[in-house]
From TrEMBL:
It comes from Lujinxingia litoralis. Its EC number is 1.1.1.22. The lineage of its organism: Bacteria, Deltaproteobacteria, Bradymonadales, Lujinxingiaceae, Lujinxingia. This is UDP-glucose 6-dehydrogenase. Residues 320-428 form the UDP-glucose/GDP-mannose dehydrogenase C-terminal domain. Keywords: NAD, Oxidoreductase. The keyword Aminoacyl-tRNA synthetase does not apply. InterPro entries: 6-PGluconate_DH-like_C_sf (IPR008927), NAD(P)-bd_dom_sf (IPR036291), UDP-Glc/GDP-Man (IPR017476), UDP-Glc/GDP-Man_DH_C (IPR014027), UDP-Glc/GDP-Man_DH_C_sf (IPR036220), UDP-Glc/GDP-Man_DH_dimer (IPR014026), UDP-Glc/GDP-Man_DH_N (IPR001732), UDPglc_DH_bac (IPR028357). One of its GO terms (biological process) is UDP-glucuronate biosynthetic process. The active site is at 266 (nucleophile). Pathway: Nucleotide-sugar biosynthesis; UDP-alpha-D-glucuronate biosynthesis; UDP-alpha-D-glucuronate from UDP-alpha-D-glucose: step 1/1. It catalyses: UDP-alpha-D-glucose + 2 NAD(+) + H2O = UDP-alpha-D-glucuronate + 2 NADH + 3 H(+). Gene3D superfamilies: Cytochrome c1, transmembrane anchor, C-terminal (1.20.5.100), NAD(P)-binding Rossmann-like Domain (3.40.50.720). One of its GO terms (molecular function) is UDP-glucose 6-dehydrogenase activity.
Amino acid sequence: MNLTIIGTGYVGLVTGTCFAEMGNQVTCVDVDAQKVALLRQARSPIFEPGLEEMLARNIEAKRLRFTTSLKEACQQSDLFFIAVGTPPDQDGSADLQHVLQVARQLGEFLERDAVVVDKSTVPVGTAQMVKETIEHHLEHRGADLTIEVVSNPEFLKEGAAIQDFMKPNRVIIGTESPGARERLAELYAPFNRNHQRLLFMGTRDAEMTKYAANAMLATKISFMNEIAHLCEELGVDVEHVRQGIGSDERIGYHFIYPGCGYGGSCFPKDVRALSQMARQRGLEPKILDAVEARNRAQKERLAQKIVARYGEDLRQLSFGLWGLAFKPGTDDLREAPSRALLEQLIARGARIQAYDPVAMEAARAQFPPSWFDDQHLMLAEHQYAALEGVDALILVTEWKPFRHPDLAAMGRLMRHRVVFDGRNQYDPHQLAAAGFEYDAIGRGTYVTDAALMIPAGSGPEQPR
Ligand SMILES: NC(=O)c1ccc[n+]([C@@H]2O[C@H](COP(=O)([O-])OP(=O)(O)OC[C@H]3O[C@@H](n4cnc5c(N)ncnc54)[C@H](O)[C@@H]3O)[C@@H](O)[C@H]2O)c1
Ligand SMILES: O=c1ccn([C@@H]2O[C@H](COP(=O)(O)OP(=O)(O)O[C@H]3O[C@H](CO)[C@@H](O)[C@H](O)[C@H]3O)[C@@H](O)[C@H]2O)c(=O)[nH]1
């Protein structure tokens, strides 16, 4: 098939490249000329495992091309995917300006009947709004074309985007048009060989499914983070609780890892946008509000622990920080817990030496320049260089190389052996045996003397 993808961010680029890999002829359009220039050289503007190789292969095979001109793409294709950003507006609702801009342009440039597929995450009713916008502009030009708008939300996770796209749990196709349904079924047929992955429904149902999925996952995480806090107060290790409840098939192990909060470009904004949808209809989204409030509080947990340990004034202290990206496998810093933590520590005068396997360049470009100018934040050359002379290590993102660190080397490099683990990656007993004080999320504080390894809250005195 001959298709056009509009927007070459995480979703558009992965979608375009994967459809090309399946033998389709794909044109990717973006308004960002620099991005398009980079992509034409088969260089990916984002870090996503496996993407650059697949990109190069499909450009080479002439199945994948990049342009800034939607008008030109309209001359060649009649199947369009909208994959532009839908960032939060000031009140938290989804800002549809990019989606509607694309709809206006399609109305201006389309020359034949077309199916327009919305892959961006958009509020219920947007497909209808896109259709009306396109038709309004077609009418203005006196063009009599039939346009179908389909909702086909995307469920890929950053860091595993190719795998998620190529082997989807499900493909949601929201349309009222039998013709559009047939086109999409044909396009997705290679992804649907052994199991029925395609779920057909109405456009509004599909739009809601995307928000409900993200809100459910965010709810699981916030629920677990709340349980973790309570565990800490009660002298319970939440990691045992996690395993205990995860083994119940009705609950499952996915998305119940407690931590220093969820980040990324999706959960925070989509929970807020769904809340706004409820509010606009006079409903009070009690659970969604609580999910959001817990996550905001959770992003303060590590700083709270540090202040509880050292006091409000952190000017004499330096910390090693492992992990800047909002999760492993990506260089994306959107709503990253690392940023919230850095804001809190730097405001109290701390110095931080940070290391991330891929997000350092993004951090230098996106974090406030004053953090670097005042030498509050330094980017270390490798993970152990971040530990030289520091008073504590703070783990924020659980990249694989951080999971099994060399404790002896850490002990030699650090001024004090203290670890704050924002992702519950380490064995408290092993760290304590190596002379480290250890504090994680919902596990209590562990000190060096094995006899004193009592989760905080379980006795009258808090071990320090
Ligand atoms: N990032 C994810 O993991 C993910 C997963 C599923 C769904 N989503 C949703 O998909 C959508 C896109 O997310 P993203 O993370 O890929 O966004 P992004 O910000 O990474 O990329 C959006 C791209 O669209 C381009 N763009 C903006 N206006 C344009 C226009 N008029 N014409 C052509 N290009 C235009 C931008 O230049 C940018 O390159 C959002 O609605 C998001 O919620 C994202
Ligand atoms: O048990 C868990 C699982 C995740 N997280 C955090 O949650 C955030 C989001 O993680 P993840 O869902 O893996 O990454 P995303 O790329 O944001 O993917 C989510 O958001 C996308 C955009 O809508 C959807 O397409 C995906 O299905 C959905 O998982 C990250 O900060 C994780 O650290 C936890 O704290 N605990």
